[in-house]
């Protein structure tokens, strides 16, 4: 019995020993695996540090690797800093071991987005992979969302603003990016200039690609003669069959007028300075202020033929470049009418006549009345024409003295009466008409 118990105990000991050995082996294997993982992580960290150092040597300080993708080549998604722009950071992709990246495309993109958004010219990006144009208000400029993109810049050159202004804007952009040495450093080589060398131009009628590498070289080597650079770009836009700028004069005027009208109606809220009507209100006219400077205003003429339900811009510049501090006008029929532009705070005014419904106005010749004061000073006191009127088939006009008039009692004592015998183009003095 004792022998059997001894043998049984021996078996328990053996089993416990074996279990202990197994646990020890498992512990050792786990420890070795853990140390291996730590070593791999350390090696990976060292590798990322080495990669980041290599990227910083090529692209500048502040490059960080955010993620790694395995494939035929290692693909690293990285972040870099750009202190020239409001965005600050941008994202790009590097392919190892060839060290090919889209760093310069993404750098160009954030700088273009920051630069062109300050102006009025439309711009965007052209995807070489998708062969598609993207507007600036799309999210295509977001380098974080599109870290692998290799887009080119496009800008709009329309007949509305002209080829010269377009060339000037493009030239100023090239001056701007030419000042960033990252595009031109020894490690950048030709690759750094690729996104700058090609520029898409979008016009009213088509789009085309221009190469500006020679112009960039001119800027880099020979200084910053902006006038010469602008002329060079203008010649480039017009050369090699880029017929998009060969607009007919009528096309240019029509396009400009269309865009101006769109702008006007987007801001017009129904305000006007003076309104008159014909045919019991069916035909209505409004003089509206289109521009103002130094107290004077430039007027335009609106017309309605449905009692004011709808309006059209009948004349954008009825007085040409002439301006006034105030206006009065009338129509005697749908084609024939008069208007005055006030000056000097209401002290005097000019009289104009139209025979084309207000499309254009021509200044009227009014005979002067010269008077001499007791001190010998000679002048014309009657210098503020009123609206002409018809009476018994004849055309008459009264002319007052304006806000500063006090000759012989001023307007209250009487106004100068005139008559026209040439359909309003000139008026002859008849005498003083008492009230």
Helix content: 25-40%
Structural class: alpha+beta
Estimated radius of gyration: 40 Å
Compute the number of helices. Answer: 7
Give the CA-CA distance, first to last residue.
155 Å
Mean pLDDT across all amino acids: 82
Number of strands: 25
Given as residue ranges, the uncertain stretches (5+ residues, pLDDT < 50) are 1-6
> What global shape is seen?
elongated
Question: Which percent range describes the beta-strand content?
Answer: 25-35%
Major sheet description = 6 strands, mixed
Compact overview of the structure:
By secondary structure, this protein is of the alpha+beta class. It contains 7 helices and 25 strands.
What does this protein structure show overall?
The chain has 435 residues and is of the alpha+beta class. The chain has a domain at 58-245. The chain has helices at residues 2-59, 103-116, 163-178, 194-197, 213-222, 226-238, 249-267, and strands spanning 64-69, 74-81, 89-96, 100-101, 123-127, 132-135, 152-156, 198-202, 207-211, 274-278, 283-293, 296-304, 312-315, 326-331, 337-343, 348-354, 362-363, 365-366, 371-372, 378-379, 384-385, 389-391, 394-400, 415-420, 426-433. The strands form 6 sheets. Strands 18, 21, 22, 23, 24 and 25 form a 6-stranded mixed sheet that branches. A 5-stranded mixed sheet has the order 6-5-7-8-9. Strands 1-2-3-4 form a 4-stranded antiparallel sheet. It is elongated and about 145 Å long. The chain starts with a helix and ends with a strand.
């Amino acid at each position: 019995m004792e022998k059997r118990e001894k043998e049984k105990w021996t078996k328990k000991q053996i089993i416990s020993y074996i279990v202990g050995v197994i646990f020890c082996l498992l512990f050792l294997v786990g420890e070795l695996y853990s140390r291996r993982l730590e070593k791999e992580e350390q090696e990976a960290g060292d590798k990322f540090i080495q990669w980041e150092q290599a990227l910083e040597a090529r692209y500048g300080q502040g490059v960080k690797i955010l993620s790694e993708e395995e494939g035929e080549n290692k693909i690293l998604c990285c972040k870099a800093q750009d202190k020239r722009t409001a965005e600050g950071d941008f994202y790009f992709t590097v392919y190892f071991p060839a060290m090919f990246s889209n760093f310069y495309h993404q750098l160009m993109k954030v700088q273009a987005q920051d630069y062109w958004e300050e102006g009025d010219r439309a711009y965007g990006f052209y995807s070489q992979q998708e062969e598609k144009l993207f507007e600036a208000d799309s999210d295509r400029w977001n380098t974080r969302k599109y870290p692998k993109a290799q887009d080119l810049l496009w800008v709009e050159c329309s007949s509305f603003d002209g080829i010269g202004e377009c060339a000037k804007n493009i030239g100023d952009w090239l001056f701007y990016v030419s000042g960033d040495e990252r595009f031109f450093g020894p490690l950048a080589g030709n690759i750094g200039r690729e996104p700058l060398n090609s520029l898409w131009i979008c016009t009213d009628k088509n789009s085309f690609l221009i190469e500006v590498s020679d112009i960039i070289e001119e800027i880099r080597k020979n200084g910053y003669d902006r006038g010469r650079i602008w002329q060079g770009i203008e010649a480039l836009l017009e050369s090699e069959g880029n017929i998009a700028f060969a607009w007919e004069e009528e096309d240019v005027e029509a396009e400009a007028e269309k865009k101006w009208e769109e702008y006007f109606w987007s801001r017009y809220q129904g305000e006007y300075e003076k309104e008159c009507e014909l045919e019991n209100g069916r035909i209505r006219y409004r003089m509206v202020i289109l521009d103002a400077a130094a107290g004077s205003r430039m007027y335009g003429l609106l017309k309605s033929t449905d009692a004011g339900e709808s309006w059209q811009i009948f004349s954008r510049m009825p007085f040409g470049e002439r301006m006034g501090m105030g206006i009065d006008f009338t129509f005697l029929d749908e084609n024939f009418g008069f208007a005055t532009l006030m000056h000097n705070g209401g002290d005097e005014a000019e009289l104009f006549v139209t025979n084309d419904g207000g499309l254009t106005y021509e200044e009227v010749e009014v005979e002067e009345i010269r008077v001499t004061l007791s001190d010998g000073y000679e002048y014309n006191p009657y210098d503020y024409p009123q609206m002409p009127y018809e009476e018994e088939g004849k055309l008459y006009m009264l002319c007052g003295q304006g806000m500063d008039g006090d000759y012989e009692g001023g307007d209250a004592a009487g106004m100068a009466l005139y008559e026209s015998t040439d359909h309003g183009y000139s008026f002859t003095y008849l005498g003083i008409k008492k009230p």
